[in-house]
Structure formats: structure tokens, C-alpha cells
Sequence to fold (1965 residues):
Amino acid sequence: MTTALILLPAGGALLVWLLPWTRFWAGSFALLVSLAEVGLWIETLIRFDFSRPGLQLGAHAGWFGDLGISYHVGLFGFSLWLVGMTVVVMAAAVAYAFWTGRERARAYFGLQLFLTGAIVGVFAAQDLLLFYAFFEAMLIPLYVLVGVWGGPGRLGATLKFVIYTMAGSLLMLAAVIVLGIQQGSFDLVSTGTSGNTWIFLGFVAAFAVKAPLFPFHGWLPDAYREAPPEVSAVLSGVVSKAAVYGLLRIAIAKFPGPTHDVRVPILVFAAIGLVYGSLVAFRAPDVRGVIAYSSLAQMGLIVLGLFAANDLGFDGAILQSVNHGLLSATLFLLAGGIERRTATGELSRLGGMARGRPALATMLMTTGIIALAVPGSSAFAGEFLILAGVFRQGWIWAVIGAGAIVLAAMYMLRLISAVLHREVGPAVPDAALDLRPAELGFLVPLVACLLGLSAWPAAVSHRAFAGTRAKQAVATELASSRTPVSAAAAAYQRCLAALEDAEIVITTATDPAASARAEKKLERGCRTPSGAIDVTISVSQAGSP
Amino acid sequence: MISKPHVDWFALSPEFVLLGASALALFVAVLVPRWARRALSAVVCALGFAGAFVAAAILYGRSAHGHPIIADAIVRDRFGALAMLIVAGSGLLAVGISAREPMRNGHDAEYYALLAAAGAGMAFFVTANNLMTIFLSLEWFSLCLYVMCAIDVDLVGSLEAGLKYLVVGSFGSAVLLFGSALVYGATGQLGLDRIAATVSAQHLSRDVLLLAGLAMIITGLGFKSSSAPFHMWTPDVYEGAPTPVTSFMAAATKTVAFVVALRILVTAFPQEAHLWTVTIAVIACVSLAVGNFAALVQRNVKRMLAYSSISHAGFMLIAVAAHNSLGARALLYYLVPYSAMSLGAFAVVAARERELGQAVTLDNLAGMGWERPLLGASMFTFMLGFAGFPLTGGFFGKFLVFSAAVDRGWTWLVIVGVAATAVSLYYYLGVIRAMYMRAELRLAPAGGAPPQELVLQTSVLVCLAVTVASFFAVQPLVDLAKHAGRALPL
Amino acid sequence: MAVLAFSAGNVLVWIVWLAAAFACLGSGVAVISFTNPFFSALALIGNLGALAVLYLLLSAEFVAAAQVLVYAGAVMVMFLFVIAYLGGRADAPWAGGPSWQQIGAVGAAGTLLVEIVVAVGLKAGGRLSHEQDIHRSFGSPRAIGRLFLTDHLLAFEITSIVLLVAAIGGVILGAHTRKLAGEKTQ
Amino acid sequence: MIVAAWICLSSPLAAALAIALAGSRISRRGAGYLATASVFASFVAACVAFFALWGDAPHDRSHYSTVWTWLELGSFSAGLRILVDPLSTMMMLIVSGVGALIVGYSVGYMDGDDEERRYFAYMAIFVFSMLLLVQSGNLLLLLAGWGLVGLSSYLLIGFWQERPSAIAAAKKAFVMNAFGDATFALALFLLIQHTRSLDFDTVFARAPGLSSNHWLVNLVALGLLGGAVAKSAQLPLQTWLPDAMEGPTPVSALIHAATMVTAGVYLIVRTHPLFELAPKVEDLAAGLGAATLLLAGLIALVQTDIKRVIAYSTMSQIGYMFLGAGLGAYANGMFHLMTHAFFKALLFMAAGLVIHALAGEQDIRKMGGLRGLLPRTYWAFLVGALALVGLPPFAGFFSKDSILAAAMHDGWYGYLLWVGGLAGTFLTGLYTFRMLFVVFGGEPSPFVREHLIRPRRRGEAHHGEGPFSMTSTVAILAVLSLIGGWIQFAPLWIPVTHWLDVVAPTLPHAEATSWQEGISSALAVGLGLAGLVAAWLVYSRRRVAVPRLPFAQRALEHKFYFDEAYDLVFYRPGVATARLFGRIVEGLVVGGSIVGLGRGVGDAARGVARAQTGLLRTYALAIAGSLAVLVVVFISVR
Amino acid sequence: MTLGILGPEVSWYLAVAAFLFATGALGVLLRRSPLIVLLSLEIMLNGANLALIAFARHNGSGAGQIFALAVMAVAASEVVVGLGLIVAISRRHLDLDVDKLRTLRG
Fold:
């Protein structure tokens, strides 16, 4: 199932490249494939058992056994949601491109489909090296998509983008290698945790660039401005979530100790990014600038949630990732629509587009309002969870986050009113049409998803991690895999390091005395992992009602 | 009474096949009418390389236990056989790339004879087991290459390249020779394993003559593998030589240089590893820095690729410096996709060159990706492969090399490699940028429509296939490398 | 050894050695010092001859013979022929080029010399001072021939191929093709 | 009852969605009717709920209903959960009742506007949001409603979106409210951390356990108060309300007078168990109320825009409610909220009639002598004014005075507040009747002649004082302003207090005695009358000149410089920082570091390339030199 | 019958060899005429040859002499190719000056 999710778009890409389609048919076929991908995801959703912890729908095949590298994919609850967001946004992006009629359609649509496969692969990979491979494979189509179909400054933008991300990724490669060689296997499920802060920082660097996090966002403004709108949508909506996934699945899950040690600096950078992005977005001179910097701010927020390292933060980060993916994709597609009509994105030359264009006004207004996290919206739910989570790490983070909500209101309202309201701007021709039915065709589903999530955010947040407790899920995931002592000890260690206020209950099949022995063994096992043990670790939060 | 040593004819079969092809090509040059010379000699040469490939493959299969032969002059093992496989494959592809190369003075048949002869020399080189054989076979294929570089005697660049290669190459050889002499003086031995045995028996590992000799041998091999700071001939020669020759040099010469460097260092000088591993690591870093930095400012694509080959030498040196079995595996694996990518990239350059009738620069590459989809996509892949992106074998090459360094505990080398890769992106992606992202030139091809170069395109496709397949089929390839690496005392 | 050191033969050898060595060094310096390559080539012949003497002192009779016959004879004749063929164009400026290049050249060569001499000197007091005694036939054509056909059979064959390759190369590079002339007229 | 409550909540939402989805397939008028009908349906449902609740035993009047889990907060969840209890039903009645009237009024008021449909959709969304706010069964949903009313307020203030001033006002309102939302949310984080729940019942049950932590309870209460202050335009977040008058008049009536702005009072009453744990914050709330009522009353004296005068009076009246709620007289505060909804809506809608009649003019200096021209409007306005001033038997009298009485019980601080409140009644009388006399008294001004008398003479169509939908609703509200207060006359007749007792019992120290009620009433009525008389003397008879106090005049006209101060302290530094970040940090540091790095690499690259001289000898030299170094190293290191 | 060595020890020969090698290297690094550069290379190879033969004498093994003979052949081959190149260059009417051959650089 998971493999099918990866291979369907990849195969589609090959077909688009290799067969002599006309522009129309290439686009149609790509759209069909991406819609089929959405269907496939829904099928996956139905098959997925949210009550069961651990990896589901996994697939495992040998690849490079010498170094313990294998093709191992599978989905957790949260990855399923990220995949869902991806396929929806990608379908919308393909639809947008089809509607605008990109030149060199075969190359273009093939790359889009390939990109879809790579991103889904990132979210599904359960092997470090496979993850890295997908992570990099993601970059290739993006590079070309921006570089070939982008705006006039695309060459510089792609260069910056690629050098930045690769500098990060290569550090990650170093980290992957060191970790994998130390562990003797690259499998994410069966290997234990590590306490090496440098390796941890290698991973964090890559994800910090990809997200991006302040101050690694130097590539962001140019890339988001110069890319074709639908690619910007994918970049900020989907690709940045690969970083979120990586931080959660690798940096936090595999490095409980370093996560704990380096948490404060990371939170500081995330908070700075949040405020900084919001402020710069407030002064950004163009539509895409506002969205771009708001993305920076939002990623800071999501990282705050991740490094809150508690269930509220995790739930919130996943929810907010899905939200932000849909939101910024919608906003970028709308920005694309506006730019097509006015040939500019400069706020000072826009204005008054609401009059006579109710569909455009409604879409932009709705999306913008959700984006500024008006209470009751899905974005609000996500931010609320994140801030409630990070509140436990210190009130200051939540205060900064709450302040950022105000700033978000400022920049989003500025954007909305600069485009829709006031007098008609000099760049807005009277003939500029309202959104066409085709445009509504891909915008409405996105907005509908957002409204649906607003009505029921728990659909995602409650189902991102099995059971009621996110971290319990993380711990159980390890314990329920094969339980060599190393893995169990790692789970135990992770619990110790990451759950300050948790009780850890260790039970074995036999009796309480055996449990006590097991605990001793586990403590020892943290230092010298060897042998095997039959043990289940469960976690409960101290003082919970 | 002279008792001749036993000759293992089978072990020499690849060399004989190639020598035979070379000789046949020479006959063609003399006996066959001018119009048929080019095609016939190309076919002969291709058959020679194909035969050598098959022979090397069989040899690989039947040499599970390496042992020296012919009075210990050479050794029959899988390590050498695998290198022969790469050389033969590179030669075959080089023939494909050469097929339509305009040889202005009609020396086609001689060219193919030299190509095959160079292949044979390399085959000897990779199996050589004593310093004399090494020096002689090195000179053998080097002389072939000197001539091939300069074969386009009409072109000043070609002559210049030939002379530079000859002089600097001879200088390097002399250094290697003097080093061999010193080692011979210190140990009294020429055989690689005997040197090691003598050193350990007489506790010579800190002997000054031996170490001075080692330094000179490293220098000589560093020259051949175009590692900085012994690299300086590389860009000039790669640029000036006819492109098919460049492609062959980039792939095959590099392969054999590294294979032999590894063999010498680990077989003859294991006791001096504390010195040469660090030295090689430093050379690796310098190569990475020099190759990448210099490549950044190049406009000429061939020259850029030459610098890129220097930086790749840096990566491969990391594997050598690791001095462990993983390093040997990494090196042997790396060479496969690297050779394919180099051959492919130079093939694309050759195609473009013939189309334009002038040197290929980043500027006149503009729009090529769209005009020539197959070549463009292939070049795209090769560049990504050089840069170490996944879905190409270049990724696993770097991965294995870095793993070997980590395995040795030299994480700092990985960091250097990573930084170098980041820099290298600029120029690799620069090629893609030129091909796809700039406005098309729509240059009128020199002399009418470009000929449909089926042979060359097939070669490029093969390179592409190897590049990509080595990513997915990494395990089988590494298995080959692993068995080959077992022949070395690691 | 100590006895031998005072023998007349030993003194004679010393004298011969000194003469040959200084001839060798002097002619070597002369080769790289002459402006005219013709004189350089002549100096090299002298150098090769002096070397042959040194070879003889080292009991390498066959090599010494080959040196004189093959090297000083055949190879140098070819050299002289080419120099004569090129005529006055063969004259070349002495050095020139960037000053750092010249300083570097002298520095590098000097350092190398010092290094090797030091390395040899470090060893001279130890292992290098005790030469193996050798059989009288050492270095004789017979012994060399035997070695060529047994231990170093392959080297012998390879050497022949190297020469062959060089011959082909010489032909290709030196050949005066008709096509070339045709092109020049275009 | 539960079903009725759900219907009450969902019917405006359904109407809004219907209008939005139908687009131009529904006529403009149809949209108005649909919205009105939906809100009216809400009202009916609210009535049903009310009577059903009436039937329950007093201690059994809290009913929760959850449809689904809205948000999962770790070990506990916040459902989409409504609460039907006396307090919420009271608010439901006020919101849907007044809402229905005002939406109905809008049908006439907005007639002919291009984007009527959008207007009614927004109005319906607002009513839904407000109902969500008052009906929510947990704090999270309350916050959602809280934000959504802010949103609809934003949408409606900026309804005339071509006007930059309207858009600016809308943004200002939203941002200031967002500030309140933020403090509100922070309070919720504290609650989540310490009580692990946001449901009212659970939180209130666990709250006493927190009382030992003074910091905690004070911070929670402060956070909630921040939200309340922002929403209700109290000091120090009051500046958005006057600007909000840029919206259509019915919007001002509904949102910025009758319902939304009073939500702060509702919040305090609803979360009183938390406030009671933090008496200091309660006192602060009362003090802020008193300060605001005085401040707003003073500023109202110099305003020339008819709607702004009423807006300041709203601020001032909400000050009273805060005063009551802060003192613990919750029922009194809620009662005043109700009566205020009636008479303030009435005043706005009457003012709306005036504005409607004068083609959108809002400056009272251009008005005058309208009494004869718009007699029914005059009477309605007069009823509203009297109710506002609090003269018996009008509604304001019953509700306002008991708040003042409650203040007297609270020691010196209480007396201080009491005095402030009494001073406020004088101001109320003064500014209300200033407005009344200026607008309706005297001779018609030239502007009025131009717009009202001349068209009539020419016989041009003018449908009386307004269409039926407008006049009828004004009439209903006038009646309510007259009799609406009669349902409670403390301390003799207090059904409202009893009704709310199960939810928010009045604190003992806010229970006024009869003499306190009496003396407060007498003084308040007296001072109100005094203000009226003063206004009559100054503005109608013109016997007394306005004292010339240029400094005070300027301070009042600048609204005590709050806008300027906020601009100077928050906005400008914020913008400056943003610009600094955008230009310097972003341009030079983040972008520049890359450029610098690139330049450095480029220089190095050119250097390396220059070393490649093309001279063969250099290449050999590189080899020889490296070799020399290598040999030295090998020999010396060994 | 075995023989000891007469005259100077091997180290002295090695010193001469080193001097020749260095002289040759200096010639390559310093001279601009390709002919003299080739001659210098010959000197370098001869230096190495002398070292080989000296060591062969020192070790009493014939391998060094064989090696030296092979080197002679190799040197001859290099001369052939080198002279061929020089002739080709002169035929292109280029200056016989290695410093003028710098179209390829950077």
C-alpha cells in the first residue's frame, strides 16, 4: 500500500516522460495520476488502524544488506496525515499547472509527479538512508521546476536554494553515516537511540534549512518569489513538512538526550524565527513575500511545538503542519491567480479586487482568516495545541507565540486589505476576471479541507499518534518492535530523557519481581545493549487525573 | 640450463586479447583501404575490449584465491580482474565515443591500435606485483596516452596537451622510479609482498630510505591519479586532448591509478600506514579543495569536468586513506559509477562539440537539454551523479567512501568531503542550468545537420544505465568489490 | 675491507671513481646550462659515458655496455638528428619566466638533493656501509640474460612492447600527412 | 431544550452558508429575509430553551451537550460542547432577540447596497459566532466564539471596503481584539497545565485547588480580564470602538452596542469562580470599568459624530457593567447588559434613521431641528436617551442604580467607585442630551434644509421616516427600553438575580441593602437630571456658554491621546523593527552572509585557477615542491 | 667466487645519483627549450638508474640491473615520443619554447 503510494506517481512520471504526449494529454494524465494518488491515500486512510500503535502498512525489502540498509517503508498516524496533505496539495498544484498550461508539458508534469513520489517517500521511509535518498530526490525536481519555469530571477534563486539545502543535507548525510555505522544498521525501527549531540545537530541543520528555520532561511524569499506559484505552494506547503517529519521521526525520536540538552537553543531560534518572520512579513512589499515570511514564522511555531517534546506539542505540530501545508498552498495558488490577472504581486499596485469578484474575495478572505489563526479555525487549533504544549517548557515561549498571533493578524489583514480592499490599484485592470470555475475546481477542495479541519481538528490531532498519548506511542512503537535489549533499553532511555513528568511502568510476562529485574536490566542495557528481553514499557504521565 | 617460469596464459588473456586487437588494428592501418579503415579498426578495437571484458569476467570468476604468477611479476586475483573489467568497459565505451570523432590526419586505425594497447597496458598495470612491472606497465599505457592526446596534431591544443602530459608525466615517472629505487635499496626487494615481509622481518618501518622512497612513490601515483597538488597537468591535458581520449583517460587512467595505489600501499607498506594514511588524507583534502574551487570559475565544460575529476580523486583518496576493507570496497564501487559518469559526460561534450564545431562552454550549451532530450537528460543525470545525488551510483559512492572514513574514525574527513560536495554543486548544477534554464541558442550546426550518432548515443545510454543501476543494484556491485577487496591484505 | 682500503687497486678505483663522478656531475650541469641544445646533447653523451664508467665500478658490465651502445649511441644520435633537423630553431632562451618559478625550481631541486643525501647519509653509517659480496659473474651478460628469461621474463616482454608503442607513436606524431598539407592550403 | 439550543446556534450559520453558496441566485432582499428569519428562528428556539429551563428545578438548570470532540488536548479533550443554563439562555435571548430586530432593521437600512448579500451573510455569521460564544460549554469553544465575533466584527466594520478609513478601523479592531485573544489563550494554557481541563464544570470544580498559588490565579484572571477588556473596549484597549463606527449603523447597533462588546461582561460572569480566587483582579476590573466610564463620558462631550457619541456612551455603560461584575454583583451587571442592549440598540437605530434620512451624514454640527421633521424618530431617540441616563421608569434606571448600590458595600475602594459611577451619571445626562438637543432641537440647519425639506417640497419620494422594517423594529425597541427594566427592581423584586443565582450568585459583599439602593437611585437620578438640565441650558437655551478650557478641549478631542501614545509606543517601534529586520538583517546578514561567502569562495576559486598558469614548468614545480615537503615530513616524522 | 667492493662505498654513488636526479629536475623546472627539458628528463632517469645499479650492487641482487636496462628502453621510448612531438610542434611553426605553449590554462 505504502509502496503503491510511492510508485504510482513515480511510474506516472516515467510514463509522462517517455511517451509522446501532447501538452493537453500530458497534463490530463498527470492530473489523473495525482487524483488517483489522492484516491489511493483515501483507501490507505480507510485501511489504517488508528488505535494500533507502531508502524502500519509496512513493506520491507533487502537493498544493501552489507551496511544494514534496506527498503523499508511504512506509515505512522502522523505520517499518514502528512502524506494526505501532500497528495492533496500536489493534486491542486498539478491542476493549477494544467490550467495555466505550462510550456514543455511532458517535462513539467513528469517532474511534478516524480516530486510527489519523492515526498511521499520521505514521509514513509523507515530507513535512514532511504529517507535521505528520498529527501534528496525531492530536491532535483524542485530545482528544475523553479529553474526552468520560474520568474526572471530564477537562476539566482535556485542556486541559493540548492546550495543552502544541500549544505544542510550533506551535513545530514554525514550524520546519517556516522549514526548508521555506529548502530550497525540504518533501519529506523529496529535501531535504538543515540546520545551524540553532534550527530543530532547534523540532522537538525538539514531540517532547519529545509523548513526553514531562522537564520537558515536565506534561500526562502527568492525561491518563493521566483518559483512558479504552484511550485511555491509545494515548496512552502509540502516540502517544508519533510523537515517537520525528519525532526520528529529522527532528531527527536532517535536523540532523546541531545533533544533535551539542545532544546532551549532550538526553542530560542524557533521563537526568534516566529517573531522575525511575522515582522518581516508585515513589511514585505509583495503578496508572495508576505506568504513566504509567514511560512518562516509558521515553521518556527511548528518547531516550537516539536521541541515542546510533549504530546500537546507533537499533536499540535502535526495538526499545524497539515494546516499550514494546505494554507500556504492555497495562498500561493491564489497569489498566482492574482499575478496572472495583474502581472504584479506588489501590494502597492494592487487593491480593490473584491469589488465584482466575490469568489476571489471569498477564497482569499477565508484562507487569510484561517491563516491568521482566528480562534475557531484549524490553524488556531494547531497553534493552541502547540502553545499549550510549549507552555510547559516555559511560559515565555507561549507568550512569544501568543504575541505572534497578534502579529499574524497584522500581516494577514494587511495582505487581505491590500489586495481586496481600498481603491482599485493601478495594476488591476477592470477586465480582470473573477476566479474561473477551473480555478475554483482546485481552490475549493483545498479550502473545504481547511474548513473541515476547522470543524474537526481532532480528526488529525487525535489521530496523529496512536493511543491518547503521543509519546507513549513513540515509546510503544519501539517496545513493540522486536525487543532486543538495545531497543527496549533505548525506549526506556528515551522515556527517561524526554518525559520529565512521567512514570514509566515496566511489565514483563511473568511477575512483579521479574519486572524489577527487567528494569535493572534495562538500566544496565542503556549502557551495554546486548541480549534480548521480553518486556513491555508503558508510560503514564505523573499526576494525570 | 634456463628454467623458464610457469606462465599462466589464462591470467593474461585480457591483455592478449587487447594486444591482438591492437596488432590487428595496426594491420588494418597498413593493409586495408583508407575508406574502410576507420570502421574496421573501430570494430576490431571494440571487439578487443569486449573480449577483454569477457575474459576479465571469467578471470574474476576463477580467481577466488589470489596468487602471484609468472615469477611473481604479476598477480592473478579478483582485485585486478575487477579493475580490468572497469578498464575494458571504459575502453569499449570510449570506442563508441570515438566512432565519429573527426581524425583530421587519417590516423584512425593507429588511434584504435593505441587505444587497445593502452587498455592492455592498464590490464598489466592493475595486476602488477612488483615495482618494476608497475613502472614498465605504467610507462606502457602512459606512452599510448601521450600519443593519443597529441594525435590531433593539427590542433595546437592537442599538441600542447601532449607535450605537457609527456613532460610532466615523465617527470612523475622519474620520481616514481627514483622512489622505487630507494625502496629497492632499503629492502633489497621489488615484489610488493616481499617488501612488506622484509620490512617487518628487519624492522625497517622507520628506515629513511624506505620512507623517502614511499614519499616518491606516493607522488608518482598521485600524479597519475591527478590528485592535488600533483594534478596540475590534468585540466590542460583533459581540455586539449581529443574528447574521446579525455573520456578514456578520465575513466580508465583514474581507475587503474587508484587500484594500483591501493594495492601498493596496502600490500607493500602496511607498516608505514601511520604515515601514508594521514598523507593520503591530506592529499585528499587538498584535491577536494583545489578541484572544487578551480572548477567553480570554469566556462569550458571539458576543463570544468577535469577539475571535477580532481575533486573526485579527492573522494577516492578518502577511501584509500581509510585503510580498511570498507575503504577498498568503497573505492572499487566508486570507480564503477564514476567511470560511467565521466565517460558519459565527456561523450555528451563530444557530441555537442561535433555539433558546434567548437569547444563546448557553458554558454554554448544553452538550450541543449531541450534540443537533444536524450543527451540532455543523460548529462543531467551525470551531473547529479557527480554531485552525489541519490538515484545515481554517485550517491552510494560518496556514501561508502564516507562510511569507510567513519569506520576508521576520521569523521573530520567526512566533514571536509561534505563541504566540498556543497561547493561542487555550484558548477554541476551550473551545467544543468546552462542546458535547461537559459534561452536556447539555436546554433546552426557546423556542416549541416548533426549526424545521427547512434553509436555515441548508445554509449551514453549505457553510461546512463550503469549510473542509475549502480544505485539500485548497489548490493551486487559491492559484493563484487568485496570479493575483490579480499585479495588485499586488509 | 680495511685491508683492501689500502691496496693499490682500491686507490685506482677511487681515482677512477672521482674522475667519473666529477665528469658525470659536470656534464649533467652542462646539459642544463647550455643555450644550444646541440651542446647539451653532447654533454649528455659525456654524461652517459661517465655513468657507464660508474656502472662498471659497480660490477654492472652489461648495463655499462648497453649504456654506451644503445643509449649514448643510438638514442643520442636520434637526438642529434632531430636537433640538426630543427636547425637554428632549436635554440631556446635559457630560463626566464616568473621569478618565483626560478626560485622555486632551485629551491625544490636543492631540497630534494639535500633530502636524498641526508637520507643516504643517515644510512651510510649503518646498513649501507656493508655491501653484499657478489659472485664474479654478477652483472655479466650471461647473468643478465638468465635473469631476463627467468625472474624478469615479463618485464623483458613488456619493455619490448613499450618500445613498439613508442615507435608507433613516433610514426604518428612525426608523420608528415598529405591531408595536413591539403588543409593548410585551404 | 438541548435540541432547541442547537437549532438556535445553527440556524444563523445555515443561513450564512446558504447565502454564500447561493450567490447571485438569491435576490438581495431574499438574503435579508433569510438572515432575519434565521435569527428569528434562533430567538424562537432560545425562547423554547428558556421556558424548558424554567421548568427545571433551580439546581438542575445546567445541561451540557457534546456532538463531537473538537480538539484533543492530550489526556483530555475539548468537545464541540454547548451549555444550556440560566446565564447562557439569558444571553441567547438577548443576542437572538435584539439580533433579529437589528437584522430586520437592516433589510430596510441596507436596501440598495451593491453587496447586500455579503452583508447579511456576515450578519448571520456574527449572530452564529455570538451564540457560539454564549452557548459554549468549555473555555476553548468560548475562545473560538470570541475570535469569531471579532472576525465578523472585522468583516462588518470593513464592510464598505473601498473606504480606507473603514479598512483601517476594521484592522485596528481586529488586532486589538487579537491581543485580547492572546492573553485569553495564555490564561487557558495555565488552566490546561494546572487543571487539565477547559470544561467549565471541571475547571470550576478544580479551581479552588489552585487558590494556594496566588501568582497562578492572578495570572489566569488577568489573562481572562485582558480578553474581556479588549472585547469590551475598556481601558486600556478602548481605542478601537469609536473607529469601529465606520461600519454600517445596524452593525454598530448589534455588535458595538448590544451584544459583542458586552461579551467581556459575560466572560467575567461566566468565569466568576476564577475571578473570585483573585480578588485583586476583580477589583482591577471594577476600577477599569469606573475609569472607562468616566473617561468615555468626558470624551463623549466633545464628539461631533453622532455615532461616536453613542459609541462612547456604550463604552461608558459597559464600564458600569464591568464595575458591577468586578464587584461581584453579577446579576446586576447582566441585567444592565440586557437593558443596555435594548436602549443602546434603540439609540443607534434611531441615529441610523437620522443618518438614513440625511443621506449618510453623521456630523451633529450639520444637524439640528429634526424634531419637527422626524417626530417619531425623535420620540424613539428620546426614550433611548432617557433610558440611557437612567431616569425612571425607563430601563436604565433599574439596572444602573443597583450596580452603584453594590459598590457602596466595598469599603473605601467601593465608595471611590461609587463616586465615579455617580459622576458618570451626570456626564451621561450631559452628553446624551447635548446630542439630543443639538440634533433635534432648534431650527433646521442649512444642511437639513438641503436634504430633508427641499426634497419634500418638491414632492420627491420620501417614505416617511424610513421603511417599515426600520421603523417597526425601532418601535419595538423603544417599548422594550421603556418596560424592559421592569422585570427587576432591586431590592424589592429581583427575579433576574434569582434566575442567575444558580450560575453566578451575587457575592455577599455586593448585596446592597435597601437604603443603599435608595440613596444610590436618588443620587443617580438627581445627577442624571442635573446633566440633562445642564445640557438644556447650554445647548438648547444657550443660557450658559461652554467654559473655554482649550487644554481640556484638546485632550478630549484627542481622546486623551491614547491613539497617539499607542502609535508611538507600539506601532511605530514595531514598524521600525520590521523595517530594520526586512532591510538590514534580511538584506545584509541573512542574504549578505551568503553573498559574502559566495564572494569568498569565488575569490579562492579565482586564486586557485590563477595558480594554473598554463606553464608546464609550474606543473612540474608543484610536483617537485610537494615531493620535497613530503619527503621532509616523512623523514622527520617517521 | 665472491668479490667485495673496491673504491668508495655505495653511499657515494647514491650521492652522485641524487645529484643527477636533482640536476635533471632543475633542468625540467628551469629550462624553456623542450629539447633541453627532454635531455633533463634523461638525466633524471639516469640518476635513478645509477641508484638502481648502486643498490643492486649493495644488495647483491641482479634485479636492479634488469630494472636499469628496462628503464633505458623506457627512456628511449620517451625520447622517441618526445622528439616526435617536438617535430610536430616545429612543423606547426610554433616556437620551441614551453612557456609559449600556454593556450590551456586557468
